[in-house]
User: Which sequence fits this backbone?
């Protein structure tokens, strides 16, 4: 894997990629018979961190679902594959693979240009286009006094992309808290009431738009589909908006916050019981994590600062010069030994920035504290796993993982190896209980990492564990493989269960990611339960028997 990184490349936004209008003569020659009504152009593709890129692919921007179907039927008839493209804010090769050439028969279909409609269906449901951004969805809901329990931190995710990989926030019920009508502590996929997708219709011998209600068996495979279908629109269950207070702390040592159960002190589980919504960001080679604690507060606490817009951590969204220069030097000069310096610089930036910007204690409508990552933040690799467990075992899962991580990071550093220069991020959510959709007969998403395990109904909670490091960091894959094996072996379905986070890094070998045959072919399918993977694959194959939706990685994953 080749990395041509500069300091500026860490801040490059996917929005800066060029769009080249198609020459009609060239388009007619290379894409004969393509629907006249669908605008064609050439487009580069670049994922979040820039490790998966392609130049000059053919792309189009349908204005509605019918135009999507027309483009898909053209692709089927001409042996092309279709990949839905939103804001490309992901890591794993679910859209395109790293080796996709400009002349590959791959058609990118942009959802962000036109498939962005938002409308209230009822007091507790919203109809949304797959290309609508999370920020626009939350803004629309706020305008109608509606909101979500939790949401991913970036606003530049399309709803369709978020649903494809069961995106989530960080929330479980605090002690004494009851779920409000229309809300869920699981993933966004668990909110879907109906999903409209372009699927194969045997009767007409073509791909057509079809709407699936949440109680249909086929819908269970579409709620989290990994890019194996094309969703154009969904109806989501939503609930009344709430005001959230978010308090940040940087004064609790990791040894105390992540201590073994029974150790006392200020623990992650303690804050979870108190508020239900936590996130810990632990920079490499530092001792004090950045802990965020959200709590439902109808009225503004005296010490809180009222916020009327999202992205209230400018020191994080706009990379400080010192951090950018250190990251750039590490990559361009192979100065990986600076990892402890970078970790401490990131911690200092957060600790000082929270004070300088008066953002250590903020309060306002939920959107304004839930969204806090802009495209201008440091572009960095991330792996990801969800450990299903019972609520009373969260601290144990966190303590064991962080102890193993610390021990291995120390051992690598003793050898002069620094595989991690970003952070560990820890979030906690509920599972995808289909009853939360308040739709009779609702199905659980088959491929969601938050799908309840029928053999262990006591597992009601997921601990999300992510490790971030700069692209190209030596020994990163080998180190992350050790972490992955620890999680898979320690939580193998006996007392807890590890599942992968679809959008991030997993299936590590010593020198690659998404490449371990045992994880791809055995561990991932088995983690979802007996027959679940096969059931989902069967539905997706039947709805796309010609394999229009897919790529080499998905072909390998689904076998």
Assistant:
């Amino acid at each position: 894997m080749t990395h041509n990184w500069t300091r500026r490349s860490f801040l490059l936004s996917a929005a800066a990629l060029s769009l080249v209008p198609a020459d009609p003569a060239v388009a007619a020659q290379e894409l004969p018979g393509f629907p006249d009504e669908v605008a064609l152009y050439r487009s580069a593709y670049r994922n979040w961190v820039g490790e998966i890129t392609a130049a000059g692919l053919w792309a189009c921007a349908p204005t509605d679902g019918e135009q999507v179907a027309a483009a898909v039927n053209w692709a089927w008839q001409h042996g092309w594959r279709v990949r839905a493209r939103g804001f490309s804010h992901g890591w794993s090769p679910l859209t395109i693979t790293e080796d996709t050439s400009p002349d590959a028969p791959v058609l990118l279909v942009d959802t962000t240009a036109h498939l962005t409609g938002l409308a209230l269906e009822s007091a507790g449901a919203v109809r949304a286009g797959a290309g609508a951004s999370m920020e626009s969805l939350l803004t629309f809901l706020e305008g109608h006094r509606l909101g979500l329990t939790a949401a991913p931190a970036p606003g530049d995710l399309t709803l369709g992309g978020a649903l494809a990989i069961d995106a989530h926030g960080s929330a479980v019920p605090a002690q004494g808290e009851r779920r409000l009508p229309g809300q869920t502590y699981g993933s966004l996929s668990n909110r879907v009431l109906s999903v409209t997708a372009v699927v194969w219709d045997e009767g007409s011998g073509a791909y057509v738009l079809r709407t699936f209600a949440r109680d249909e068996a086929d819908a269970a495979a579409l709620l989290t589909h990994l890019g194996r279908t094309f969703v154009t629109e969904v109806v989501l269950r939503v609930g009344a908006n709430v005001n959230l207070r978010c308090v940040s702390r940087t004064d609790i040592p990791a040894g105390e916050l992540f201590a073994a159960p029974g150790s006392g002190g200020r623990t992650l589980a303690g804050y979870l019981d108190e508020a239900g919504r936590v996130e810990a960001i632990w920079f490499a080679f530092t001792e004090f994590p950045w802990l965020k604690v959200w709590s439902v507060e109808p009225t503004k606490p005296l010490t809180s600062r009222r916020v009327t817009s999202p992205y209230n951590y400018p020191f994080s969204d706009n990379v400080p010069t010192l951090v950018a220069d250190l990251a750039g030097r590490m990559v361009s000069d192979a100065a990986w030994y600076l990892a402890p310096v970078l970790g401490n610089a990131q911690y200092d930036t957060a600790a000082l920035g929270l004070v300088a910007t008066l953002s250590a204690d903020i309060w306002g409508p939920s959107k304004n504290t839930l969204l806090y990552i802009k495209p201008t933040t440091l572009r960095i690799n991330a792996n990801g796993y969800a450990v299903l467990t019972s609520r009373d075992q969260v601290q144990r899962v966190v303590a064991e993982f962080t102890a193993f991580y610390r021990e291995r990071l120390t051992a690598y550093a003793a050898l002069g190896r620094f595989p991690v220069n970003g952070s560990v991020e820890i979030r906690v959510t509920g599972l995808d209980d289909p009853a939360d959709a308040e739709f009779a007969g609702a199905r659980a998403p088959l491929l969601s990492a938050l799908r309840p395990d029928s053999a262990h109904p006591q597992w009601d909670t997921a601990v999300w564990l992510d490790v971030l490091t700069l692209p190209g960091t030596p020994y990163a894959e080998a180190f992350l493989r050790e972490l992955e094996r620890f999680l898979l072996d320690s939580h193998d379905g006996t007392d807890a269960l590890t599942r992968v986070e679809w959008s991030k890094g997993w299936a590590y070998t010593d020198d690659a990611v998404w490449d371990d045959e045992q994880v791809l072919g055995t561990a991932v399918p088995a983690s979802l339960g007996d027959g679940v993977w096969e059931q989902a694959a069967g539905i997706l194959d039947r709805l796309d028997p010609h394999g229009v939706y897919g790529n080499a990685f998905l072909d390998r994953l689904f076998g």
